[in-house]
Helix-turn-helix protein (Leucobacter luti), 264 residues
Amino acid sequence: MYREWGIPELGVLWRSSAGGAPTVIPADGSADVILRDDELIIAGPSTRALTGRGSVHGDTVGLRFAPGAAGLALRTNPAPLRDQQLCASEVIPKPVAHRAAALLRRLRDADLMQPGPPEALTTFQDFVPLIRASADSGFARAAAPWTIEVRHLASSGAPKYAAAQHLGYSERQLQRRMLDHFGYGYTALRRVLRAERSQQFLRSHLNPIAAARLAGYSDQSHLTREFRVLVGTTPAQFAAAASAAAGRAAYTSMELPSGSSTVE
């Protein structure tokens, strides 16, 4: 089972049950800090589909930073980490790694579904102050305001020159700032967000031709080529899997805390 909880201005805190077959993870432009089998791992900003695995012993937990937050949150240059999974001690400052591991161990060892003693961390809301405290001490800082604006521009399909002009940068300045904060450039961000839009359309039962047109692809072939790289499957296969998952969910009812979601 997979569960996640959104954190405004930062990203998503998530938890996944142990075991399970390797899973293809679509690109989302985000970077994660992950505790798996008690090893702290940095998954760099993703701009292509990757294959992930669960832990052997105990749940896997992580904090996924919104696109543009990785540089400040991890206190390192995210560009060399792009589309890689590396041992945290090799890529981020040791004090930052220590605080991240301590936070994620508390999440892993807490039971967020069951009531517990007053001193126990039993709800997602209990973790928010800890995450904010981590930000104050140098880990998990929220994204800079301009990164939120550039995400909106990329999502709207604005070309790079128009985005740079809107933000008051030259195209070269925008590229440099994108690499420092996102770990990749503006064009890559547009591709990731366009692929996410197409996934939403396919989940809404639109056919690939309509999804391609509405998401901004030149044609269905263009969508299929991009989908293979960014999502790791074809639009038709994705739509069939999404339809099957929706059918299973129709038979499942589960009360969730505010801001959370669950996938089994």
User: Anything to note?
Assistant: The longest helix spans residues 186-203. The radius of gyration is 19 Å.
